[in-house]
Amino acid sequence: MQRVREIAFFKNIKEIREYQFGTFYFFDSLVISEINEGVTFGWDMAKKAIDAAREIFGENMPIAYISNRVNNYHVVPADWVKFYSHRHQLDFYCVVGNTKGSFASLVLERVFFRNSIRQFSVLEKAVEWSLANIEAKKNNLAPQMK
C-alpha cells in the first residue's frame, strides 16, 4: 500500500500534523490520516485532528476524510457517537486498506457513520473520488457515488 508521501498528489499539501498516534495530511478540503501501528484510535485522538481541521479549513468548509490504513490499528467504534454528539460532520469518508483488520473496523464504523463509507484498495482512487465529491458539493451538485 502507498503512503501519502509517495503519491503525486502530495505536492498539493497544505499542512502536516504529526501526533504520537499518527500523522494527518491536510489538503484543500481533504484530510488523509495514517494512524500508527498498534494504536487504539479513539475520541481523544480524533478531537485533536478535528481541532486542527477547524484551524486549517474554518468551520463551514465541506471536508472529505480518508483513512489510509497502511498500519494495523483499531478504531473505537462507539466513539463515533461522541463524534456526532459534538456535531462533527464529515461530508465524505473513505477507507483505504485491504487487511482483515481494516475490513472489520469498517463494518463497525458503518453502524455509527450516517453517510456512506467508501472502501478503496488504492489511495489515489480514494483521493480522486473524494476531490470530485467535494467539488460537486461546493457547486451544489449531487455527489458522485460511482
What percent of residues are in strands? Answer: 15-25%
Give the overall shape.
globular
Q: Treating each run of at least 4 consecutive H or I residues as one helix, how many helices?
A: 4
CATH class: Alpha Beta
Name the strands of the widest sheet in spatial order: 1-2-3-5-7-8
Radius of gyration: 14 Å
Tell me the series of helices and strands, N- to C-terminal.
Answer: EEEEHEEHEHEH
Task: Itemize the secondary structure elements and their pairings.
Layout: E1 15-19, E2 22-27, E3 30-35, E4 40-41, H1 43-57, E5 64-68, E6 74-75, H2 79-85, E7 92-96, H3 100-112, E8 117-120, H4 123-138
Parallel strand pairs: 3-5, 4-6, 5-7, 7-8
Antiparallel strand pairs: 1-2, 2-3
Explained architecture:
This protein has 146 residues and is an alpha/beta fold. The chain has a single domain, classed as Transcription Regulator spoIIAA. Helix content is 35%, strand content 24%. The chain has 4 helices and 8 strands. The protein has helices at 43-57, 79-85, 100-112, 123-138, and strands spanning 15-19, 22-27, 30-35, 40-41, 64-68, 74-75, 92-96, 117-120. The strands form 2 sheets. Strands 1-2-3-5-7-8 form a 6-stranded mixed sheet, sandwiched between helices. Strands 4-6 form a two-stranded parallel sheet. The longest helix has 16 residues, at 123-138. The radius of gyration is 14 Å and the shape is globular. The two termini are 22 Å apart. 32% of the residues are buried. The model has no long low-confidence stretch (mean pLDDT 82). This is STAS/SEC14 domain-containing protein.
